[in-house]
Design a protein that fits this description.
The complex is a heterodimer.
Chain A (H helix, E strand, L loop, with lengths): L20 H7 L3 H11 L5 H10 L2 H4 L4 H4 L3 H8 L8 E5 L2 E9 L1 H6 L1 H17 L4 E11 L5 H21 L3 E8 L8 E11 L14 E6 L9 H4 L20 H16 L3 E6 L4 H13 L2 E5 L12 H6 L5 E6 L4 H10 L3 E9 L3 E6 L2 E7 H5 L13 H7 L12 H9 L8 H4 L10 E3 L6 E4 L6 E7 L2 H6 L1 H18 L3 E10 L6 H20 L4 E7 L12 E10 L16 E6 L15 H7 L11 H16 L5 E4 L4 H13 L3 E5 L5 H6 L5 E6 L4 H10 L3 E8 L3 E6 L2 E7 H16 L2
Parallel strand pairs in A: 3-4, 8-11, 16-17, 21-24
Antiparallel strand pairs in A: 1-2, 2-5, 3-5, 6-9, 6-10, 7-9, 8-10, 11-12, 13-14, 14-15, 15-18, 16-18, 19-22, 19-23, 20-22, 21-23, 24-25
Helix pairs in contact in A: 8-9, 8-11, 9-11, 11-14, 20-21, 20-23
Chain B lengths: L2 E5 L6 H11 L4 E5 L10 E4 L19 H11 L3 E5 L1 H8 L6 E3 L7 E9 L15 E8 L3 E3 L2 H9 L3 E6 L18 E5 L5 E4 L16 H14 L1
Parallel strand pairs in B: 1-2, 1-3, 3-4, 4-11
Antiparallel strand pairs in B: 5-8, 6-7, 6-9, 9-10, 10-11
The chains are: A alpha+beta, B alpha/beta.
Chain lengths: ~750, ~230
């Protein structure tokens, strides 16, 4: 098409002509944005330039729709108004150490090419971490798929997990935790959110700045190919029938190169000669050159002919937009090119000077002698037009809330319901997934996958960190504000159950097409809820990512604002797991509200309602943040004092599933006595918030009671650990009586059984 | 006594192994770069786990041509102790320092989990701190750990007592369901006929401290020290 329109793909800035609308629109720019480009440049853009603008001004890179709303996050607002976003992703854990963490989506690539899409998602987020000078120590994944009865969904699930394993296992960073949910709304548009966590010395944080006029600019790592051109633009449109043709937009991952790049980068930073460094993800060389220059208030000139390539005859446009993986841009102290280059070459990697830092604030791109682009770095990196989109509360919300749940028939066999819930893929064991990931390499993993959060020791200290990801998309669909708050509260609760004090959040905000007012309403409400909860729990959002357009012609995904949260254990010996351990221990439910306060309406948004009645209705569980905080503070202190032997939060599937999980992981049963209640379903399966199950030795029981009373936390002594069965009685009548072996089988076999078809 | 841990491009258990020797065994240890051609001064060389050269061609197939492997071969021929863990085992088989081959797991999936191993031989440099029939809880993490060799080789391994570990269940039975990858005879680790080169798929360095869920890997690591002390 380009040639027939008479466009010179190697055109220079001296002699430009109007770019036809069909060309810039295809790249993702609208007419107003194109006019703005012409105004900024004072001329029409070259073909290379229009491509650079289109990709930097996409939602994926420029956050043109989300930025105004993201200002609700305190740290983000402060960063935009102050020092910039650079070091935002680092949490100080004392002793001179910091934790860098970030989460990012790779949804659209994974929808069309699940193996490589997921693999490169892992690779991309790892680079975000080690580019700061942090050694990656853990990966997590938050995944959403459709119903496993659908063969295409099984294909996506199988290959996404394989892709994550392929990359993570080879690169030697343990994949320690995460979550997987299944719901029809994700059938054609799975969510693949990858999170990475690294540790660094706080006095040695690497900066993404092109400082020092005259300093050489080096490209290190893999060669540049035609893969992934306009990947960022692809992420900024809905998926459709023609999306399959987008497979060439998906990058290819090479975890071996990445492993070398990690070691070489950390070693190169140790030389002290690297002035600035930035990884290349979306928008490749375009993004890394303009962002590093904009941050330092400098400019940069580069020559695309000097870029090592793996394909012949690449145009400047292709080189500038390629999203080839495993590359970094390095700004090096003048005269030290050889010292830095030698480190990369030792590891068998390219390290080539492609340009230099200038003082004119412009990104100038040469192809040999020809100047094919000359754009203000700031205009590309920071001056993407933003839009205030309309919001409108969708009709379904009120309808769903008005459904009268008291009319539902009571379950006649709670044993059967419990087994069905345990074998619901969203609740069931994820060992089929975690077994495919190396979760132990680096030998820091102190709590393996399967408990409330992963715990890793921090070498050189007595400390450990706990990490988790959480989000119940169904709650967020029914009420994005409350759902997002619950995501924060539950993440914090999981960390507390592991013995950690919650410290900070990275998020990945997955939504449908924001240009639809109902979707933008969901987005705005979710961010409001999350921002408020993060301030309340003192867990600031330090980094994050927005992924829009997660929809197909058939359906839109649930609003899914995933929370990745970090917690700190001052002593690694404070770690705690969910498994019941000693027969005779008393089982105590510590909660914000009395155990009997649940009623039919508490079943809103529950797994029970979905699995047993096929309904997504009601309002999600309510959240009293003050009560939640009291429960968490109480449990954390009990764990730190060594007064409880296990701790587990009640989430999907309610109290009954929570108890079953403690039994399964401990390989031991429990006898539970609950008082009379109007609804056994609500008592057993409602997902009321702020509830934590702990097991306590009889010797410590009095102290646990005292602590709960002192902190105004409800303390329900509901039973005792022991025996081979989980037996739950309500008002002295048996409602659940199942062998732990039977519970375990239902829970453990659910996903493998569905994957063998 | 000095240990060497070889670093191939793509090794990723090199640091874990280094720490286990330095901090748990409390023995001197150095990294050995894959271009190194001299192993003078070392008493034991460990080829660690990971994905040498990405394992893109076939596990261990490229690493065997690394310059250091000539040195490892000389070292072994002179009687030096060599232990290959996971990818290291694969490299030793590719180099024919150990018999047989490691093929794709029967389930065709990568598996990372704790398994039980039954100690089959306690008279070796790698297992002298174990009891015969002792069950060790040590994790595996591999996609290609399915040990295979021809029937004659297997018969020789059995007859010579060169099978060090077999996958077993909690009671020590070497059942099919306790075999995670389809290995012939549930074999998890073997040694050469001279008894100075061994390979094992499970990772003893990952089970060397209680905080990691098991300290059984120390039995293997400490056996190396005992063997060197008594040599």
């Amino acid at each position: 098409m380009i040639e027939t329109l008479g466009i010179d793909v190697r055109g220079t800035v001296e002699n430009t002509r109007p770019i036809p609308p069909e060309v810039y629109r295809e790249m993702g720019l609208n007419d107003a944005e194109y006019r703005e480009v012409v105004e900024v440049l004072g001329r029409h853009p070259t073909y290379t330039e229009v491509g650079m603008y289109a990709v930097m001004w996409s939602e994926h890179c420029g956050y043109k729709y989300s930025r105004p709303v993201l200002r609700l996050f305190k740290k983000y607002r402060e960063a935009l108004d102050g020092a910039g976003l650079e070091n935002a992703g680092i949490i100080d854990i004392g002793d001179g150490f910091g934790i860098a963490m970030k989460m990012e989506s790779h949804n659209h690539p994974s929808a069309v090419e699940p193996f490589q899409g997921a693999a490169t998602g892992v690779g991309g987020i790892l680079r975000d971490i080690f580019t700061m000078g942090a050694r990656p120590i853990a990966s997590l994944n938050s995944l959403r798929f459709g119903d496993l009865d659908d063969p295409h969904v099984r294909y996506l699930f199988e290959h996404v997990v394989a892709g994550i394993g392929f990359y993570g296992n080879c690169v030697g960073v343990p994949t320690v935790a995460g979550e997987v949910y299944f719901d029809d709304c994700y059938a054609g548009n799975p969510l693949v959110n990858a999170m990475s966590v690294g540790v660094l010395r706080t006095d040695r944080i690497a900066l993404a700045r092109a400082a020092g006029v005259g300093n050489p600019v080096m490209l290190v790592g893999s060669g540049t190919g035609r893969d992934g051109i306009h990947g960022a633009t692809f992420a900024s449109v809905e998926l459709g029938p023609e999306s399959e043709s987008r497979r060439p937009n998906v990058q290819m991952g090479d975890p071996f190169q990445e492993k070398l790049l990690i070691e070489a980068t950390i070693e190169a930073l140790d030389t002290g000669f690297v002035v600035g460094i930035q990884d290349m993800g979306a928008a490749g060389i375009t993004c890394s050159t303009c962002e590093t220059a904009a941050k330092a208030g400098t400019g940069m000139e580069i020559d695309v002919n000097k870029v090592p390539k793996r394909e012949a005859d690449m145009t400047p446009y292709e080189v500038m937009l390629s999203e080839s993986q495993e590359r970094m841009l390095c700004i090096v102290e003048k005269g030290r090119e050889e010292d830095v280059g030698a480190v990369f070459r030792k590891w068998g990697l390219n390290a080539v000077v492609i340009g230099r830092v200038t003082d004119d604030g412009m990104v100038s791109v040469y192809e040999g002698e020809n100047l094919v682009a000359r754009i203000s770095a700031r205009s590309l990196a920071d001056e993407c037009p933003t839009y205030a989109l309309d919001t409108e509360e969708p009709e379904y919300v009120r309808k769903a809330h008005n459904v009268d749940l008291s009319k539902l028939p009571a379950p006649d066999d709670c044993n059967a319901v419990l087994l069905r819930l345990l074998s619901s893929p969203s609740v069931a064991s994820k060992e089929w997934v975690s077994d495919q990931y190396d979760h132990m390499v680096q030998t820091n993993t102190a709590v393996l996958p399967g408990s409330d959060a992963a715990v890793l020791r921090i070498r050189g200290t007595d400390k450990a960190i706990a990490i988790t990801t959480d989000c119940n998309g169904r709650y967020c669909y029914l009420d994005p504000y409350v759902g997002a708050q619950i995501a924060v509260a539950e993440a914090a609760r999981n960390l507390v159950c592991s013995g950690a004090r919650p410290m900070g959040v990275t998020d990945c905000l997955n939504f449908a097409n924001p240009e639809k007012p109902q979707v933008f309403w969901q987005f705005r409400r979710a961010v409001e809820g999350m921002a408020e909860a993060c301030e309340f729990f003192d867990t600031p959002v330090v980094s994050g990512n927005v992924s829009f357009y997660n929809e197909t012609p058939e359906t839109a995904v649930y609003p899914t604002p995933v929370v990745g949260m970090l917690g700190l254990l001052e002593s690694k010996d404070h770690r705690c797991e969910q498994a019941f351990r000693e027969a005779g221990d008393v089982i105590v439910l510590l909660s914000g509200q009395p155990i009997l306060s649940v009623d039919h309406s508490s079943l809103g948004g529950s797994e029970y309602l979905k699995v047993v009645h096929g309904m997504v209705a009601g309002a999600p569980p309510s959240l009293d943040m003050a009560a939640e905080k009291r429960v968490q503070d109480c449990v954390l202190r009990l764990i730190q004092k060594g007064l409880v032997r296990s701790a587990h939060d009640c989430s999907e599937g309610g109290l009954a599933v929570g108890l079953a999980e403690c039994c399964i992981s401990g390989g031991v049963g429990a006898r539970i006595e609950l008082p009379a209640h109007e609804s056994a379903a609500a008592l057993l399966f409602a997902e009321a918030q702020s509830r934590i199950l702990v097991s306590v030795s009889r010797d410590n029981l009095a102290r646990v009671r005292e602590a709960a009373t002192a902190q105004e936390v409800e303390c329900g002594e509901i039973g005792e650990v022991g025996g081979p069965r989980l037996a739950i009685r309500v008002d002295s009548g048996s409602v659940v009586d199942l062998g732990v072996a039977e519970l375990t089988e239902a829970w453990r076999d659910a996903i493998p059984a569905r994957m063998v078809v | 006594m000095k240990f060497g841990v070889v670093v191939f491009p793509g090794s990723n258990c090199d640091a874990d192994t280094f720490y286990a020797v330095r901090d748990v065994l409390e023995q001197p240890v150095e990294y050995v770069w894959h271009r190194s051609t001299d192993l003078k001064g070392f008493d034991c060389v460990i080829l660690p786990g990971g994905f040498s050269y990405g394992d893109y061609l076939r596990t261990g197939a490229v690493a065997r041509f690394s310059p250091v492997m000539n040195a490892v071969e000389d070292f072994a021929n002179r009687g030096g102790l060599v232990l290959g863990i996971c990818n290291g085992f694969q490299i030793l088989c590719e180099s024919q320092l150990l018999p047989g081959a490691l093929t794709a797991n029967v389930g065709l999936k990568f598996i990372c989990r704790y398994v039980n191993l039954r100690v089959e031989q306690t008279g070796s440099a790698f297992t002298n701190r174990c009891r015969h029939g002792q069950i060790l809880r040590i994790p595996i993490a591999h996609g290609e750990g399915n040990y295979y060799c021809d029937p004659e080789t297997l018969a020789r391994l059995e007859a010579d007592g060169r099978i060090l570990f077999r996958y077993c269940d909690e009671s020590g039975e070497t059942t099919e369901s306790a075999n995670p990858n389809g290995s012939l005879g549930n074999i998890a680790g073997i040694m050469n006929d001279r008894g100075n080169v061994a390979g094992m798929m499970p990772h003893p360095e990952r089970a060397a401290e209680p905080i990691l869920g098991s300290a059984d890997g120390r039995y293997v690591l400490r056996s190396l020290v005992s063997a060197l002390v008594n040599a």
